[in-house]
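Justification of computing resources. Each target in the renewal requires a structure prediction run like the one illustrated here; the chain below, 310 residues long, is used simply to show the kind of job we budget for.
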Amino acid sequence: MASTEVPAMVKPEGKLTIAITDMGNETPTVWQEFAFGKAYMRFLYDALTGTNDAGEVDKNNGAAKEWSMTPDARKWTFILRDNIKFHNGDTLTAEDAKFSIGLVTSEDSITSYKGTVKAAIADQDSITVVSPTELVIETSKASGFLNWFISDIQGVEGLIQPKNYTESVGNDEFAKNPVGSGPYKWVDQRKGDFMEMEALDNHWRDGAPRFKTILWRIIPEESTRIAALKAGEVDVISVSRERAPSLKDDGLNIFSKEGASVLGLYFHEQWRDNSVWKDINVRKAFNLAINREEICEFVFAGQCSPARVY
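Resulting structure tokens:
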């Protein structure tokens, strides 16, 4: 008789120290953080709509495992997974998703893309919790990109925090001791200095993270970040395009990710009769006048790809 040995689960170990210029508003709640803060927020929270490394919405990576919209793009249905746990042991449900969208669109919210979400979802009455795993959102106008707006692509607007825990401790206390459902849980923070988080042994989406501890250090000055890296005080730093070649010559590993940041030109208010952008030929001409290849080569030192048009 042959037996099959089940391999032991690999547990997170070691510490990764990351030095960056800033961490947004440094307030780890879904409604008090800017888009830049998603760099760390995505470690703590899951988004309603998941995304992948290509920057696309992905049903494998978010709280919602399925979603659909009506032909007129005015009604969206989201089916959530039933096995996601917050770090305090509570199960993530559609009530938490509705609650979090309410925080994002509230008067006191300061998120970067609050207006985009609020333009589609007028108020909490537009959101119906059908069951713990089913959420229906009726938009105030056609919104074919709603699943994109409530993902973690743009900012933090799609992230989910627990309703019961938030209401039991209050917003101020939650900001000091946040609870999410991401692969890392909150440990400690000193604003303007550092933020520390610890890995779960196993996460529904990512399995076991590689590093047990992630320490984010805020070091605004680039030369100081470089010195800290060379001294072994930190493991990873953000670096400008201008300094990257010399660091590579010094034997340091330079890595980048396509799509990590997106710069675009958007023709707002093209629906207004008195706007020059209303004329599609003007928009086309403006688009043709932009030499994307030269921008990538000379402005971004070859570290980008030309943006697509839609």
